[in-house]
Batch of 2 targets.
Target 1
Amino acid sequence: MARTPIVGGNWKMNTDLASGGALASGVSDAVGDGGGVDVVVFPPFPYLAAVGQVLSEHGTSVKLGAQDVWHEANGAFTGEISLEMLKDCGVSSVLVGHSERRHVIGETDDLIASKTRAVLGSGLQCVLCIGEKLEEREAGSTDAVNERQLRSALEGVAEGQLANLVVAYEPVWAIGTGKTATPEDAQDAHAAVRGVLGSLFGADQASGIRIQYGGSMKPGNASELMAQPDIDGGLIGGASLKAGDFSEIVRLAGN
Ligand code: PEP
């Protein structure tokens, strides 16, 4: 099944109000209508509304995403942000289970499963991040870790929700380190991920789910990675903070 490439820019805890607006403006101008690629930027929470405003003023196809969410609708969850709040800000896509949430903040598979169900249940796009740590790769358990994270997060997800599911395979050792999986290793992992999706939802459904690669992707390595048959775009951290680099990756994704 032909899959539309998707490229996301995870700004993490970077930018401020002025520089976030300027980055959104630069990305909008450079990306334009996306050239057949779905593009999402994930600014920090406090700047969502302002960045959303910049995107809509530019009339761009670039979508607004959030880096995280809390799965309950409302109530006594100090410091947390609900899906309705994100929708109010114009968000249409949410990252769930980013490795920094899993391994720095300490989110568990169970919490990530709750968030995944909540995002997909709300009708927003869920970018579910999975990936192994260096010691897991060295122990030969890359595919087992990805399978565990996928099966846990996707339990109870209905077939009708799969159009809003994107999986981001991000080997933890490659995130922000300058190290990248070889295109062959990344392809092997992506093919195994698609195999797990197939065993959960059937091969037909699995063939329509986009799987992004993330981990030090930049203009110099993006083409080779995205040329792999099961790599459907990228989730970009560092390089998403430069409008020129990010839009170049978007352009390469469309080739
Ligand atoms: C990420 O944060 O999802 C990521 C892939 O970061 P970087 O591109 O900086 O490795």
Target 2
Amino acid sequence: MKTAVSFDAWLQACVDGMEHKLDAFMPAADETPARLHEAMRYAVLGGGKRVRAALVYAAGHACCNAGTASPATEAALDRAAAAVELIHAYSLVHDDLPCMDDDTLRRGRPTLHVRYDEATAMLAGDALQPLAFELLADMPIAPALGLQAVQVLARAAGSAGMAGGQAIDLASVGRVLDGSELQTMHMMKTGAMLMASVALGGIVAGASSMQRQALDAYAEAVGLAFQVVDDILDVTADTASLGKTAGKDAAGNKPTYVSALGLDEAQALAQELRDAAHEAIAPLGAAAAHLAALADYIVLRKR
Ligand code: GRG
């Protein structure tokens, strides 16, 4: 019989398990070209909350019979979770480059281009992307579902998703965006990858259309909530707790939920989105308990 595990213990097991899987899925540091492989490992291992990986697992388990995945589904979830973490890590490396956000601190350590050099940081990001798709291609699931997974991740990372959102963000510095422009930018830049994480879990688990609908509505709410909270933390948390430079948005004159709505309204919006996430997964019942707890974690987090 399955025993109930507290959410904190489950999340920590996700973080530790993901670290171990990512370590195994990535080329060894001494494999040629060693400097590039070392840099890729520096970007991915030893940090990060692994929220996207946890969303993949929680969504997958929510759609499995009695919340229990077969060994093949579990192996596919490992690859899907690692794939989203690789794309996420690449995006952080490129975002930190001098031509973009020009940051020197990430996950409490020097950014990749500072620790290595800019060309290596570009290449490490470039190499992490195809590795993510290689992992998806290697999932032990029906080929049609594997193709859907590739399409979902490609769209989320591309110009209709994260890369497009980043382009809008770069073009918006110093401009006042209205509420809907701000939402579009953030749903593309940040929300798309979080939504893809939830969708991938459902695809891997062979979710029904009712389950997929519930997951999509949940993902939209947590995708936006994540960014609203990120904007709040930028003004309320310090650099040491964040592991990245606090106050960057205001210093860079970036449009954020706090600058658009004020701190109190931004906090109220985060709570509303948390409620919406809970409501969306009600049809999934008890199997969605970790998804519900992840919505709370995303809204209540301090880093
Ligand atoms: C370069 C194509 C390209 C895209 C960059 C992700 C991104 C787009 C920029 C990162 C800048 C940023 C701070 C965005 C806000 C939300 C966000 C993605 C925060 C970082 O994610 P966390 O908090 O990071 O999950 P960890 O380190 O915990 O994995």
